[in-house]
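Long-time lurker, finally posting.

We've been working with TetR/AcrR family transcriptional regulator (Streptomyces pulveraceus) and I want a structural starting point before designing mutants. I don't trust myself to interpret raw outputs, so I'm hoping someone here can both generate the structure tokens and explain anything notable. Sequence follows.
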Amino acid sequence: MAAELSAHHRRLAQQKREAIISAATDLFLNRGYDGTSLARIAEGAAVSKSTLFKQFPTKAALFEAIVTESWQRDTADTVARPQAGDLRCGLTAIGHRYADLIGRPGMTALFRIVIAELPRFPELGQMQFQLGKLPYFTSVQHYLESEHEAGNADAPDAESAANQFLGMIANYVLWPRMLLTDWDPSASDIRYAVEQAVETTLARYASDRPA
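Top reply, 14 upvotes:
Generated this for you. Predicted structure of TetR/AcrR family transcriptional regulator:
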């Protein structure tokens, strides 16, 4: 019985945490970071102020959680970084996961919040980069380094290779959404964009590419 109650309490705590993060994201986007109070977030999440303050004592802590969970959702290192051995297969897996990640409405909202508040709150941009983009980018760089070491890729500058590969995907999936409210490419269009990014990267970095 105690174990069941403990599991029940953990589920309730997780549900409240998700409600808080969802409410905060909406409020930050619609009212701005500075214009949103923790009290208003608690109201929007339908939780008590004490519940909110227990999990997130400051807005900065809450925004940090939003960034971390946005980038780490379904992208643990073992998922985002395939084993070396098949460069095409690895790039394809990474490419589709990255497209899924940055194509979510929540990721678009996160970038919009950061861009809108950057002049007044540069620390939000630092959080987004240090806690979100950089760890993900580094995992892809390490994957390409492992393929280079295994002889499957000719990528001595894996940092540049990772930047080029992810950049091709983001340039189609994410960045148009920041300016075009009706940008909504189909699943097949996104698959094609990822496939083309893979082909371009293979043409440049595969160790068995034509001379």
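Before you design anything, note these points.
The mean pLDDT is 89.
The chain has eleven helices and no strands.
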